[in-house]
Amino acid sequence: MLQTKIAANAEALRRWLSKAEVVLGNHSDRLNAINIFPVADGDTGTNLYLTIRAAAKSASENPTSDVGELLAGAGQAAMEEARGNSGTLLSVFLAALAEPLRGTTRLTGPLLAAALQRAEIRCWSALSEPVEGTMLSVIAAVSRTATAVHGGQNADDSNHGLAATLEAVVEEAVAAVVRTEAQLGALESAHIVDAGAVGFLLIMDTLRASALGEELQPELLDGLHGFNVQDPHLHLDHIDEGVEVMCTINLSPLDAATLRLKLDELGDSVIMSAVTEVEDGYRWRVHAHVPDGDAALELIRELGEPMNVTMTELAGPPEHSHGG
Question: Could you tell me where the DSSP H helices lie in the chain?
Answer without folding.
Answer: 10-33, 44-60, 67-80, 84-98, 109-126, 135-152, 159-183, 185-190, 195-212, 253-266, 293-301
